[in-house]
Amino acid sequence: MQDNIKKKAIEQMTANEFKRINGVVMRMIVLLFKVKWFRFDDLVIALTANKLSREEIYEALDYFESQEYIEVRELEGRQEVRLSDMDIEDVEIKLTGEGKKVAYSIRTDDGIDL
User: Fold this and answer.
1) 54 in a structural domain
2) What are the tens digits of pLDDT across the range 57-67?
3) For the chain, how many structural domains are there in total?
4) Tens digits of per-residue pLDDT, 13-51?
5) Partner of 109 at 20 to 30 A CA spacing, among 17, 79, 99, 102?
């Protein structure tokens, strides 16, 4: 019984942290880039004060892509690609219309704490 309570508490903390990080990343994208394509490292630099790791930021972007909140394209050919199929340094990222709806609270997402 005690182990089950601990397990649920850990799962809830993990879920809350996931949502918090997604919210921080989403707000920064809207604040700085709005309609522009941006590079991953530009986002990492912008989030330095929030003490998020590259891995946490990448995980948020992976989630956003799975929900179609961002577009990802290769730098050279400008062709749309999947984030997981490319080196992160070789792509640009942009918020989609659906991503903007979430960012501006027109649409809600239980995985993002805005």
Assistant:
1) yes
2) 999 999 999 99
3) 1
4) 688 999 999 999 999 999 999 889 999 999 999 888 888
5) 79
